[in-house]
Automatic annotation (TrEMBL):
Coiled-coil blocks: none
Domain of life: Bacteria
Name of protein: TetR/AcrR family transcriptional regulator C-terminal domain-containing protein
HTH tetR-type domain span: 2-62
DNA-binding region, residues: 25-44
Lineage: Bacteria, Bacillati, Actinomycetota, Actinomycetes, Mycobacteriales
Pfam families: TetR_C_1 (PF02909), TetR_N (PF00440)
Keywords: DNA-binding, Repressor, Transcription, Transcription regulation
InterPro entries, per database record: DNA-bd_HTH_TetR-type_CS (IPR023772), Homeodomain-like_sf (IPR009057), HTH-type_TetR-like_transc_reg (IPR050109), HTH_TetR (IPR001647), Repressor_TetR_C (IPR004111), Tet_transcr_reg_TetR (IPR003012), Tet_transcr_reg_TetR-rel_C_sf (IPR036271)
């Protein structure tokens, strides 16, 4: 059986989901694909390049059409879509965050956010910064959410007995942050109209 690039990415995603990012090694991947580790390097020059391809697969739904017409609804839709992409895979947010930091992903999700903010009337340089801000918000919030879910699944979270520290619904918390972001963009745009 000939090994294809897509097979390697599929195998990496299977390991990611089963064992997590920390255990996604080239040796383990080669073993799961029943090939020598060197066979993987035919398709990817190093593990970082492989992780970039895995991130691209995780982020593939970001390329689908946006249903919303108005810029703030587009931003909200794209942010939720990104969060959903990250939550679909174990350690998805951590992996994508690392590949964004090292510029290994080719996903155009952030650029789509830039376009929505430009349509709101923000100049491109500020729209770029706004999109990075939103991207980092989604990544950071989702890394925290996934970490807490994983710790909870193995009983590693301390039991909270204080009624003042009730853990809110993760989606509600995420939506609150999005409303703050959109409100901030609206405020910034409104100050320029005067």
């Amino acid at each position: 059986m000939q090994l294809h690039r897509a097979d390697v990415v599929d195998g990496a995603i299977a390991i990611l989901d089963q064992y997590g990012l920390g255990d996604l090694t080239m040796r383990r991947l080669a073993g799961s694909l029943q090939v020598q580790p060197g066979a993987l390097y035919w398709h990817f020059p190093n593990k970082q390049a492989l992780l970039g391809a895995v991130a691209d697969r995780i982020l593939a739904p970001m390329d689908e059409p946006v249903a919303a017409d108005e810029w703030s609804a587009q931003i909200t839709e794209l942010a939720h879509r990104l969060r959903d992409c990250l939550l679909t895979y174990r350690d998805g947010a951590e992996l994508v965050s690392a590949t964004y930091a090292s510029r290994l992903t080719t996903s155009k999700g952030r650029e789509r956010m830039v376009g929505a903010v430009i349509r709101a009337g923000m100049p491109r340089p500020e729209a770029e910064s706004a999109a990075f801000t939103l991207l980092y918000y989604v990544l950071g919030q989702t890394v925290d959410e996934q970490s807490r879910m994983q710790m909870d699944s193995v009983g590693a979270l301390a039991e909270d007995t204080s009624p003042l520290d009730e853990t809110p619904d993760a989606t509600a918390t995420f939506d609150f942050g999005l409303r703050l972001f959109v409100g901030g963009v609206r405020h910034l745009l409104g100050t320029r109209v005067r």
